[in-house]
């Protein structure tokens, strides 16, 4: 189950536009993108980690039928470490200059095995970290 309180808090930060793209720590990358987590954004409830994640695409990419290419995205992500799934709750897509382009679509829980190698590495590291010592 997704941590709804943490998800709501992260959603409020996104909605307020208070997310600084420089406040992220890189953990993983692959030929598609580089993956980072937002400082202080990780909330732990049982096996679920809810956090802000920034994805910087190797090549600007258009999503969801929108022709405008996205340089990076910031999402609220729920990682269920026991079920080995990720759920993109909400988020926004940005240009290389940081201009908000359009909202990102939420996703249903997706198995890690369906993710790119970089995202698989990212979620594995997030699940292996003791966040009580990091916050």
Q: Into which percentage range does the β-strand content fall?
A: 35-45%
Q: Approximately how much helix is present in the residues?
A: 10-25%
Instruction: Flag low-confidence runs.
Output: 1-17
Number of DSSP strand runs: 8
Helical region count? 2
Major sheet attributes: 8 strands, antiparallel
> Which structural category do the helix and sheet elements fall into?
alpha+beta
Q: Nearest-angstrom radius of gyration?
A: 14 Å
Helices and strands, in N-to-C order? HEEEEEEEEH
Q: Roughly what is the average pLDDT, rounded to an integer?
A: 85
Cα separation of the termini: 22 Å
**What overall geometry do the principal axes of the alpha carbons give?**
globular
Question: What characteristics describe this protein?
Answer:
single chain, about 140 residues, alpha+beta, eight-stranded antiparallel beta sheet, 2 helices, disordered N terminus
């Amino acid at each position: 189950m997704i941590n709804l309180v943490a998800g709501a808090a992260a959603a409020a930060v996104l909605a307020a536009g208070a997310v600084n793209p420089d406040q992220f720590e890189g953990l993983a990358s692959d030929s598609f993108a580089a993956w980072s987590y937002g400082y202080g954004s990780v909330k732990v409830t049982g096996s679920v980690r809810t956090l802000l994640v920034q994805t910087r695409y190797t090549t600007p990419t258009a999503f969801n039928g929108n022709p405008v290419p996205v340089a990076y995205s910031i999402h609220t992500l729920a990682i269920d470490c026991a079920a080995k799934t990720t759920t993109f709750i909400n988020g926004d897509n940005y240009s290389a200059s940081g201009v908000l382009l359009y909202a990102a679509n939420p996703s249903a829980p997706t198995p890690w095995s369906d993710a790119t190698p970089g995202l698989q590495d990212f979620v594995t590291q997030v699940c292996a970290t003791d966040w009580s010592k990091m916050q």
